[in-house]
């Protein structure tokens, strides 16, 4: 009987290797384990065994039965996974087809840069303030210590309206308005449009500026340097060098023009920077006492600094657009690049 | 202004290269814009001497020259110039030289004879257009020296940008003073020695100043028996190298002294002055003058003129008169050196549209104390270079002499403003190198010298040439720039950060912009200026207040002559531009202020036209329709937390009369949207429909509500019932929704329209609307019975109120 059992075990294991479908597996199961199955038949002969043999054969039969049952289970699992694999294969897609990407809009490149500038100054505690673009001579010039015969007031530079107003030539009038409306400490930036009569590859009659103003009881020129160096490092990278050159603006004293190390040649000198290694990016200075007087601040009591930069200019350090008027054509082939 | 390195060295010593000097000047605030090497084009050209000539054996028109270029071996050079002769000194381009014209010199056989270089004409060297023969050089030049050096052409020109506050730098001596501030080296002023004749100047002319306010100082000299002619080479070269046209020796000398001292001078032909005298006065009404440039100019009484006994002979400080100018026949010269009021010169020059070297300096502010120095220097040079005798003495009328400005400077204030720790001695040294008089006085301003202690201050005397220095802060800037901005420490602000004020408009702007970007629209920025015809193009009705746009007095062009009161025309222009370039996926928006009378409201506007979407497999293009633009507007309201609004059809002519809506908030219009009218499309040459919206961000800001509150997530299940009704085609589809909500009360959670059908399946003049209603109770699980009863009630109500038939 032992032999019979072992023969069945060998037969079943051999048969399982040939199985390809669940149906075949089921038939095989019935053939051996069913009520009239071969194994069942053999087991029926257990009664005829001697008392000594019975437990031994019984143990063996259980072992074989259990191991075959495991083998059937394994065969079933293998069949299942094979079947699933085939099903999944039938669901294959061409992964090189394009993704169904939602159509995304893009912010205007000048606005992207403007936003970055705003963020950097906001981290340093500056608040964003805006003001009118149609201005008076008083706010655009007089209050900024720019007397009537200053060259900046020539008709050549300023757009005048027929009603005697003008389009602000810089965002500085908002600084005056801010100082009129609040007491120090003041720490603001003024983003927005400004206008000058200029139209060529590097000038548009409307452009964007960010101006800044910090007024407090004791603000120093060294702090102006600190704020701007910190801005430049964040805007143009850690390695950016900065250079402050004396300059002249009617509304600041001392005044400076500020250069950064050329972003193309890293200061070695190239065509972009006129072989100087430096690129001018902004104007700045300590607020002139006359400006404080114009807003009824006492220049003995407060000091401050102001700075201003052209956003298109800074944007173009990165984008290198040969004709900056392209910014305002709103050609979608252009806008899509940024 | 241009200067040259060699010329500057006449007035001060320094060891800098041109690049180093440029760097130093730039960091002092005198920006060097370009550095240009003179004489580069004639590198390799040396002074040579022809020592013998013999005929060329094979060519009649050529000769063989032996040329000495200062080396042991003489060069054989074949030459065809008509003026070549034995003993002639001429430029020789040696082997390896590349000439101005690009010709490269190499040893060559010319008609069988060796030639080791080339004797050159002025044209071949790029010096002048003269090609008639070899350039004749002075015989005393040292043979073999590079030509550039021999001619003084080996110089470097620096182009300076002088800021308007620094007229004192508009001269070589002025720039030399800046070099002194940097190096501490002493200035070297020109040596002036005059041989005056016995004739008293006062005896042969006189100067009367009628308006001392406009002319605080006028001085004149007479130089007799001059010979007007060409200036010597060195003078011509100097002027040409800095870009000043060469005219004749007298005029060239006045220009040379102008460059040297920054003092404009003018030379008159003495005999052409009526009564040989000068009257400085305002022009009389109706007077005219023909200026040097031979234009006749009208004069007005606000202009200062230099007149003789009868009529104006020069526009003071701007340009001389043609009639009295120096000509070849001039023998006696009246030389003017004066100081004029800057604002008067500026206004005259501006009115006349003239900008001369003289007016440029006078309008920024010349140095009244320079007047005599410059006058004497020019007289000396005229006597030296044009012959003539200088009359004795000067007519010097100086009604407007000013005392030097005195300023108190507190050394502590310097450090307070700059954030530095400068010693008083450093401050003192900087200011005295700049030419300021400086002494320590007691704080109280007693004009008495005192010890340098903390309680004491500097009493600073401003030199007459520094017209820009009037206040303590101006002196602080002087200290800062000479000390070096780069040497000032870099620190962060120590003061308190002000308390931020919330900016709701900025928040609305940010949210709407992000929403529009995520909806696939691109951000545009347009000029604030538009063409006045844009209102016609968008068919704005006659009385629309948007038509009252602000106009520019000096527009760049008609296309940019008024300020826009709406963003819509700009976006239509953008659509047209893109369509013209075959780009038809137009989804653009702009957020900007517009100009409406004296207000500057902020608007957001957008356009959808052509084909929108991805245009790729799986995300095909689609033609936008009214509901795309309406959805954009609704989304914009949603991100602002605005829920209570209404759309209403309008009769705005810009839009399709049946496909537009105004957006009402509390029955106030805050925006408009719709399909552009076919004529508007035609006006912008668009072959497809365009959908536009414009919203007032200020009104949205007022209504915006960003506050959000938690509502409990439903515990009990919702029950869905769909409902299709047939109603009149014209009926607004939002009416049933209102009825469903009001009938169902709190138990209706939401109603959504999911289908609109017009066609075969419904009778003519009718449409089918299908809704999904979600029923829900916050307090219990709704039973089918409750829902069914309620749903039936809704259906009855719809039938009663709208005559709606249930569609099976
Ligand atoms: Zn570079």
Keywords for this structure?
heterodimer; A: alpha+beta; BirA Bifunctional Protein, domain 2; 2 domains; two-stranded antiparallel ribbon; 11 helices; 41% helix; 19% strand; B: 808 residues; alpha+beta; Phenylalanyl-tRNA Synthetase, Chain B, domain 1; OB fold (Dihydrolipoamide Acetyltransferase, E2P); Phenylalanyl-tRNA Synthetase, Chain B, domain 3; 7-stranded mixed β-sheet; binds zinc ion
Task: Tell me what you see in this structure.
The complex is a heterodimer of chains A (338) and B (808). By secondary structure, chain A is α+β, with helices and mostly antiparallel strands. Chain A folds into 2 domains: 2-91; 109-335, BirA Bifunctional Protein, domain 2 (2-Layer Sandwich), CATH 3.30.930. In chain A, 41% of the residues lie in helices and 19% in strands. Chain A has 11 helices and 9 strands. Chain A has helices spanning 2-18, 22-33, 38-44, 53-90, 109-123, 137-140, 172-181, 221-236, 289-294, 311-319, 332-335; strands spanning 127-128, 134-135, 166-167, 186-195, 206-216, 242-249, 252-261, 278-287, 303-310. In chain A, a hairpin with a 2-residue loop joins strand 6 (242-249) and strand 7 (252-261). In chain A, helix 5 crosses helix 10. Helix content of chain B is 27%, strand content 26%. Chain B has a 7-stranded mixed β-sheet with strand order 27-30-31-35-34-33-32, sandwiched between helices. In chain B, strands 11, 13, 14, 21, 22 and 23 form a 6-stranded mixed β-sheet that branches. The longest helix of chain B has 19 residues, at 784-802. Chain B is elongated and about 130 Å long. The model of chain B has no long low-confidence stretch (mean pLDDT 92). At the A-B interface, strand 1, strand 4, strand 5, helix 8 and strand 6 of A face helix 9, helix 12, helix 14, helix 15 and strand 27 of B. Bound molecules: zinc ion (ZN). Zinc ion is lined by residues 262, 264-265, 269-270, 272-273, 277 of chain A.
């Amino acid at each position: 009987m032992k032999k019979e059992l072992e023969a069945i075990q060998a037969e079943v294991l051999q048969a399982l290797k040939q199985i390809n479908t669940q149906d075949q597996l089921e038939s095989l199961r019935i053939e051996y384990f069913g009520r009239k199955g071969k194994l069942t038949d053999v087991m029926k002969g257990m009664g005829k065994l001697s008392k000594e043999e019975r437990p031994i054969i019984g143990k063996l039969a259980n072992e074989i039965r259990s191991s075959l049952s495991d083998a059937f289970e394994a065969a079933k699992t293998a069949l299942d996974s094979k079947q699933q694999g085939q099903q999944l294969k039938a669901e294959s897609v061409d992964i090189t087809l394009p993704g169904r990407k939602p159509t995304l809009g893009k912010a205007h490149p000048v606005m992207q840069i403007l936003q970055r500038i705003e963020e950097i100054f906001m981290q340093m505690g500056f608040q964003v303030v805006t003001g009118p673009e149609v201005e008076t001579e008083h706010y655009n010039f007089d209050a900024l210590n720019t007397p009537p015969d200053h060259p900046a007031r020539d008709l050549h530079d300023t757009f005048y309206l027929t009603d005697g107003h003008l389009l602000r030539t810089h965002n500085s009038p908002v600084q005056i308005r801010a100082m009129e409306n609040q007491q120090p400490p003041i720490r603001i930036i003024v983003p927005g449009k400004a206008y000058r009569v200029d139209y060529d590859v590097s000038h548009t009659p409307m452009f964007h500026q960010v101006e800044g103003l910090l007024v407090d009881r004791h603000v120093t020129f060294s702090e102006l340097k600190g704020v701007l160096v910190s801005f430049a490092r964040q805007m143009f990278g850690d390695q950016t060098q900065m250079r402050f050159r004396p300059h002249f603006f009617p509304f600041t004293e001392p005044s400076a023009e500020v250069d950064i190390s050329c972003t193309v040649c890293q200061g070695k000198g190239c065509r972009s920077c006129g072989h100087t290694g430096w690129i001018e990016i902004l104007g700045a200075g300590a607020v002139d006492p006359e400006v404080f007087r114009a807003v009824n601040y006492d220049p003995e009591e407060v000091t401050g600094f102001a700075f201003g930069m052209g956003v298109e200019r800074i944007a173009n350090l990165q984008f290198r657009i040969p004709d900056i008027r392209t910014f305002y054509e709103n050609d979608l082939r252009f806008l899509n690049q940024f | 202004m241009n200067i040259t390195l060699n010329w500057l060295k006449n007035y001060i010593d320094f060891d800098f290269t041109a690049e180093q000097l440029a760097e130093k000047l730039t960091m002092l605030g005198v920006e060097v814009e370009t550095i240009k090497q003179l004489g580069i084009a004639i590198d390799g050209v040396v002074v040579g001497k022809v020592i013998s000539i013999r005929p060329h054996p094979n060519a009649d028109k050529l000769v063989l020259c032996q040329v000495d270029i200062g080396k042991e071996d003489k060069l054989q050079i074949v030459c065809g110039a008509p003026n070549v002769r034995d003993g002639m000194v001429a430029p020789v381009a040696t082997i390896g030289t590349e000439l101005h014209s690009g010709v490269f010199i190499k040893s060559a056989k010319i008609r069988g004879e060796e030639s080791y270089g080339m004797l050159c004409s002025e044209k071949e060297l790029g010096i002048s257009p003269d090609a008639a023969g070899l350039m004749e050089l002075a015989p005393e030049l040292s043979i073999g020296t590079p030509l550039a050096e021999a001619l003084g052409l080996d110089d470097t020109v620096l182009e300076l940008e002088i800021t308007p506050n620094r007229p004192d730098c508009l001269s070589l001596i002025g720039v030399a003073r800046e070099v002194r501030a940097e190096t501490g080296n002493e200035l070297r002023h020109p040596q002036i020695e005059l041989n005056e004749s016995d004739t008293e100047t006062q005896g042969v002319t006189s100067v009367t100043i009628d308006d001392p306010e406009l002319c605080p100082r006028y001085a004149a000299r007479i130089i007799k028996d001059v010979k007007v002619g060409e200036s010597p080479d060195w003078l011509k070269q100097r002027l040409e190298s800095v870009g000043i046209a060469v005219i004749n020796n007298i005029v060239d000398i006045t220009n040379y002294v102008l460059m040297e001292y920054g003092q404009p001078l003018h030379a008159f032909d003495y005999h052409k002055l009526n009564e040989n005298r000068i009257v400085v006065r305002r022009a009389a009404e109706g007077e005219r003058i023909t200026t040097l440039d031979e234009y006749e100019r009208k004069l007005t009484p606000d202009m200062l003129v230099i007149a003789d006994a009868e009529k104006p002979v020069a526009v003071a400080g701007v340009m001389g008169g043609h009639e009295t100018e120096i000509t070849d026949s001039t023998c006696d010269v009246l030389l003017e050196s004066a100081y004029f009021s800057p604002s008067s010169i500026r206004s005259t020059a501006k009115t006349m549209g003239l900008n001369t070297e003289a007016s440029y300096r006078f309008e920024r502010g010349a140095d009244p104390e320079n007047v005599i120095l410059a006058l004497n220097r020019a007289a000396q040079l005229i006597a030296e270079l044009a012959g003539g005798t200088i009359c004795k003495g000067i007519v010097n009328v100086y009604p407007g002499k000013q005392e030097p400005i005195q300023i108190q400077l507190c050394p502590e204030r310097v450090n307070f403003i700059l954030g530095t720790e400068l010693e008083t001695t450093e401050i003192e040294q900087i200011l005295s190198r700049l030419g300021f008089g400086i002494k320590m006085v007691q704080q109280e301003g007693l004009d008495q010298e005192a010890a340098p202690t903390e309680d004491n201050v500097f009493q600073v005397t401003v030199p007459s040439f520094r017209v820009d220095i009037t206040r303590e802060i101006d002196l602080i800037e002087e200290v800062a720039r000479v000390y070096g901005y780069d040497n000032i420490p870099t620190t962060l602000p120590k003061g308190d950060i002000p308390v931020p004020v919330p900016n709701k408009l900025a928040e609305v702007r940010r949210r709407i912009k992000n929403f529009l970007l995520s909806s696939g629209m691109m951000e545009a920025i347009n000029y604030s200026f538009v063409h006045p015809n844009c209102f016609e193009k968008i068919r704005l009705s006659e009385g629309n207040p948007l038509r009252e746009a602000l106009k520019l007095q000096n527009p760049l062009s008609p296309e940019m002559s008024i300020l826009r009161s709406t963003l819509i025309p700009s976006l239509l222009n953008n659509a047209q531009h893109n369509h013209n370039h075959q780009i038809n996926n137009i989804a653009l928006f702009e957020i900007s202020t517009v100009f409406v009378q004296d207000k500057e409201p902020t608007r957001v506007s957008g356009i959808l036209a052509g084909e929108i979407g991805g245009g790729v497999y799986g995300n095909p293009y689609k033609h936008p329709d009214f509901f795309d633009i309406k959805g954009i507007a609704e989304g914009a309201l949603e991100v602002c937390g605005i829920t209570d609004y209404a759309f209403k059809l309008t009769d705005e002519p810009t839009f399709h009369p049946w496909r537009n809506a105004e957006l009402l908030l509390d029955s106030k219009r805050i925006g408009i949207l719709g399909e552009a009218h076919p004529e508007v499309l035609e006006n912008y040459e668009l072959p497809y429909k365009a959908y536009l919206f414009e919203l007032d961000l200020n009104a949205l800001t007022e209504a915006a509500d960003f506050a959000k509150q938690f509502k409990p997530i439903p515990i009990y299940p919702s029950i869905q019932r769909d409902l299709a009704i047939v109603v009149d085609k014209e009926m607004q589809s939002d009416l049933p929704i209102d009825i469903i909500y009001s009938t169902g009360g709190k138990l209706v959670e939401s109603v959504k329209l999911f289908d609109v059908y017009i066609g075969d399946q419904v009778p003519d003049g009718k449409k089918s609307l299908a809704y999904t209603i979600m029923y829900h109770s916050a307090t219990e699980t709704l039973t089918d019975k409750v829902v069914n009863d309620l749903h039936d009630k809704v259906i009855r109500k719809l039938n009663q109120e709208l005559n709606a038939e249930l569609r099976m």
